[in-house]
Amino acid sequence: MRDEEEQATYLREVLEIFEAEGVDGAFVYMFALGNYPHRPDDPGRDLDMASPGIVKVYDDGRWEPKAAFGAVAEVYGRI
Q: Who has greater pLDDT, 79 or 42?
């Protein structure tokens, strides 16, 4: 089952802990994983569900932000 909010919540919590501890910056390790395409019409082959990327990549190379992208932007927007 696809649950983008789980990844977003995790990243938000970790970045907020870093912020509270005075860490000046942190690297979110994966922007996109192009060989794990998002296939919304074929959940059994939606490899993006296993991708740690903060954007989902389609078979044609297009990408769009996941909920995690917004979470990272939200936290860094406050800093």
A: 42
Q: Is the dihedral of CA 13, 16, 22, 28 positive or negative?
A: positive
Local structure of residue 20 (DSSP, 8 states): H
Give the pair of three-digit tokens for residue 71. Answer: 């979470």
Q: What is the pTM of this model?
A: 0.87
> How many angstroms from the chain centroid is the CA of residue 18?
18
Q: Please name the residue ranges forming H helices in the chain.
A: 4-20, 67-78
Q: Which one, of 68, 78, 74, lies nearest residue 28 by Cα?
A: 68
Place of tokens 């296939």: 39
